[in-house]
Specification:
single chain; alpha+beta; Outer membrane efflux proteins (OEP); 8-stranded antiparallel beta sheet; two-stranded parallel sheet
Length: 498
């Protein structure tokens, strides 16, 4: 009872939604279905967004190679604003009160070697006095700094000039993998949707055939009752014929239930509210069957194989980048700037605090420094990281070999299935032609009075069943062909739209 109630509710809801919106049945062809999948299917939209995100990250990595300009102010040695109040000696409590401000512009550039070069132009202004009665004294310290940070002794080289290229290639591979994932998702979703639509069409045909079969069975019941009244059959025979009608009605209920479920699934994947109001027109003979090539070129055009190949390349790049991260780092610093002459013009004059720096008597402050930083012992972290990278690369290589093997086997199975389907089609075509001739002969016999309407309609129903069966086989061939095309790396959406 619960089963029948669920079926009744689904059918009622489907019909109710269809009535106010559609005056007649609408037709959706393959291109229309593709548009609905792209527009409304959540899985496809999420996958496309993932590809957009990967593209954005890749563009971000490319732009990271451009120079950057930033405002800078050191937090202690030359702060944006600083204040100090210090005593010269405990016996003479004279203090020096100092206010300072500093600012600078810094231009930085990532280097192809994985290092960074920067140029900073800055100035620091200090105002100080000894006591409250002393005048304020002004001084400035403009200058520029060149800074080079460079990893060394990495990947068997003094300087690895492929560092930036590897970083960009790593990001590009991530984008390409995302693109392959998106292609696979689109193909899989579309094939699943077209398979669902085809199954819905077959269920609709089966429902109509069953309805015709029930009408024919009712005619048999009427004839059987007449035969029973004439004593030509027993009551048990009549009961068997009537029970057959009941079994056919149960089968029809089950078929309608399956159809309602299929149409609800279509509503979900295509984003349409009333799929029962649509007629789905799939041209099942428009896709060319791929050739039977089984070469490495075909196998390596498969999206899964391409992703596995890209993953191997990415793991190799990760090895070099991680070694670069653990490499010793050299830091070179050059700073230069003007120095005040032995005597100042007027220390209380803010303007002279700058002009004195560029007088003929002024000198130049020049400093140069270098430092080297490297890990002596990190607790075995670097060694574990290298082992992890090596294992990850081995796994990626094994996955690649496994992917190639699976693709070859899957393609072989799909090609074998296509051959079997073609043989089945030829057999059904022969059977259908035979059934048509048999039906025509039976119609002639009925016109002559040597056959009945029930006999003619029985043959007509068998012919409809055969035609439904061959449509189902055509659909299987269509879906199998799409699976082959997807396996060969084709974009199914583009293929069907063009």
């Amino acid at each position: 009872m619960k089963y029948l109630l669920n079926l009744f509710i689904m059918l009622l809801c489907t019909q109710f939604l269809a009535l106010p919106l559609f005056g007649k049945e609408s037709i959706l062809n393959t291109k229309d279905i593709i548009k609905l999948v792209v527009k409304n299917n959540a899985t496809v939209k999420i996958s496309a967004s993932g590809t957009d995100l990967a593209r954005s990250i890749y563009n971000q990595v490319l732009k990271s190679g451009n120079p950057t300009i930033s405002f800078t102010s050191d937090s202690f040695t030359s702060p944006l604003y600083g204040y100090s109040n210090s005593s010269f000696s405990s016996t003479s409590p004279i203090t020096t009160e100092t206010h300072s401000v500093s600012a600078g512009l810094k231009i930085s550039q990532l280097l192809p070697t994985g290092g960074t070069a920067s140029l900073t132009v800055d100035n620091s202004l200090s105002v100080s006095r000894g006591t409250r009665n002393d005048p304020w004294e002004f001084s400035q310290e403009p200058g520029f700094s060149l800074n080079l940070i460079q990893p060394v002794l990495s990947n068997g080289r003094l300087i690895d000039f492929s560092a930036m290229g590897n970083t960009r290639e790593n990001s590009q591979i991530s984008y390409e993998i995302s693109h392959m994932n998106n292609l696979g998702t689109k193909n899989n979703v579309l094939i699943a949707v077209l398979s669902l639509v085809h199954r819905t069409n077959i269920l609709r045909q089966s429902t109509l055939i069953m309805e015709k079969g029930i009408k024919l069975a009712n005619l048999r019941v009427e004839m059987a009752r007449q035969d029973r009244e004439g004593g030509r059959i027993s009551s048990s025979d009549l009961l068997g014929i009537e029970l057959d009608v009941g079994r056919q009605k149960e089968a029809l209920f089950d078929m309608e239930y399956q159809l309602a479920q299929a149409e609800m699934e279509i509503s979900r994947v295509l984003g349409i509210e009333n799929p029962s109001a649509y007629k789905f027109n799939l041209n099942l003979t428009t896709v060319d069957v791929p050739g039977s090539l089984e070469s490495d070129a075909v196998a390596h055009s498969n999206p899964d194989v391409l992703k596995a190949t890209l993953t191997v390349a990415q793991k190799k790049i990760a090895l070099t980048l991680n070694k670069l991260a653990d490499a010793p780092v050299l830091n070179f610093v050059l700073r230069a700037g003007p120095r005040y002459p032995g005597s100042r013009t007027d220390t209380s004059d803010p303007v002279s605090s700058l002009t004195d720096l560029f007088s003929k008597e002024a000198g130049i402050n020049l400093s140069l420094g270098a430092s080297l930083n490297f890990n002596i012992w990190d607790g075995g972290v670097s060694r574990s990281a290298r082992e992890t990278d090596g294992i990850s690369l081995e796994i990626a290589q094994q996955n690649l070999e496994d992917s190639v093997s699976k693709v070859r086997q899957n393609r072989k199975e799909l090609l074998g299935k296509l051959k079997l389907l073609e043989d089945r089609i030829q057999l059904l075509l022969t059977t259908i032609e035979y059934d048509r001739q048999l039906l025509q002969r039976e119609i002639v016999r009925q016109e002559r009075g040597s056959s009945t309407k029930v006999d003619v309609e029985t043959l007509r129903l068998e012919l409809l069943s055969r035609e439904r069966d061959i449509q189902n086989i055509y659909g299987e061939r269509y879906i199998t062909t799409l699976q082959l095309l997807a396996s060969d790396g084709n974009d199914i959406m583009d293929k069907l739209q063009n």
